[in-house]
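Entry for the shared binder. Reason: the reviewer on the internal report wants the predicted structure included alongside the sequence.
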Amino acid sequence: MERAASAPIRVPLSLTMTRLTLLCAVLLIGAHGSGRAETPRPGMTNCATGVSPEQRQRCDEEAFRQVQSGSQSTQLDGGWRLVRSRDPEGGADAVSAMHVADSSKSDGRLAGLSLQCGRDGIDVALIVLEPLSRSVRPTVVLTSGGKRAAFEASVVQGGAALRLPADASKLAASDWQNAPELSVEIATEPNAIHGTVPTSGLPMALSYLSQNCHAR
């Protein structure tokens, strides 16, 4: 199955692209660090929640620069992107299929959905724009095609990603492929995070992801 060759991401930092940039930056920062201490990358140490708009813009630009220098992205059908990032320590590439949240149906704190090559198959993670405390285990409710599933998530990758259990991976390979979108509710304080991620094109995205997982 041939697609256009991967090319570095070159896009303006609109709200949608900021979400995409964060999705990719989280992959760069954390996907290679499983089992290791998660340390901020140079230039990202002052990018915590609550920074000024000017500092947030600098953080967005720095994340975007790191994405450009460390990963390649291939556009897939349905708005999905297959993203491959290099391990600076020479290990296996990190590979993920990503989709940004629908900005018209999501609040500003949800960046999108990431399906990643894991040790035991495909890992499912939700990426948020405001990092959460590593000590919490928020309940995540996902609804697709009228079917509702609740999971206890683990906060990983500097607080920007919520890793879901293996049962979510099973849904990605089955029920989610038969619906146009995935509704997301994350139980956070003081207010829950709500959003929607389109899932059209998910079967092909998973197919490409699986091929690249085996090719690493």
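Summary line for the report: The mean pLDDT is 76.
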